[in-house]
Write a structure and sequence with these properties.
Number of helices: 7
Strand content: 15-25%
Helix content: 40-55%
Order of helices and strands: EHEHHEHEHHH
Number of strands: 4
Radius of gyration: 23 Å
Distance between the termini: 68 Å
Length: about 150
C-alpha cells in the first residue's frame, strides 16, 4: 500500500540532514518534498519601535520544517520514520489516503495534517472514574494517622 508520511521538525536547519538521511536509505529526490520557506522579518511592533533597536529573531521567524515522503511498503515506511527520528522530528503523520502528488501543495498538506491531528484527538477514549472508588481517596491514606 502507498503512503505519504509527513514529518514536522523544529527548524529548517534539519533540511540537509533529513535529505541526506532519506537518500542514504534509498529514497530518490522525487520521492520526498522538503518545504523550505524564506525567512521574513515582520515589521516591528508599535512598542518595540520606542523601546528597542533589536529584532527578536525567534519571535519573528517561523522556522519549522515540513517534509513529506512517498513510501510504497512497510520497509520504506520504517526507514523514513527512522530518518525522521534521527533528526529530532517533532511529530510524524502517516497518511494512507493522501496521494503524494497532492502533497506537493503545502496548503493542502497542512489542511490534511490538521484534520488528521483533530481526528486523533477526538478518537481518544473518554476517561471515566468509578463512583465507588471516590470514597476511598485521601481519607483511606490518612485514616491511620492519630492526633
Amino acid at each position: 500500500m502507498a503512503y505519504t508520511i509527513v514529518g514536522l521538525f523544529p527548524s529548517q536547519e534539519y533540511s540537509k540532514a533529513v535529505s541526506a538521511g532519506l537518500e542514504n536509505n534509498g529514497f530518490k529526490n522525487e520521492n520526498y518534498i522538503i518545504y523550505l520557506e524564506e525567512k521574513k522579518h515582520s515589521p516591528k511592533s508599535f512598542w518595540s519601535k520606542f523601546f528597542t533597536e533589536e529584532i527578536d529573531e525567534e519571535a519573528v521567524a517561523v522556522d519549522s520544517l515540513i517534509v513529506s515522503v512517498a513510501v510504497n511498503n512497510t520497509e520504506d515506511l520504517e526507514n523514513a520514520k527512522k530518518v525522521f527520528k534521527e533528526n529530532s522530528v517533532v511529530n510524524i503523520y502517516t497518511l494512507e489516503e493522501l496521494d503524494f502528488e497532492k502533497a506537493a501543495d503545502l496548503d493542502y498538506l497542512k489542511k490534511v495534517v490538521a484534520l488528521k491531528a483533530k481526528s486523533l484527538i477526538y478518537a481518544m477514549p473518554q476517561a471515566k472514574t468509578s463512583s465507588s472508588d471516590m470514597h476511598t481517596g485521601i481519607s483511606s491514606e490518612v485514616g491511620g494517622v492519630s492526633k
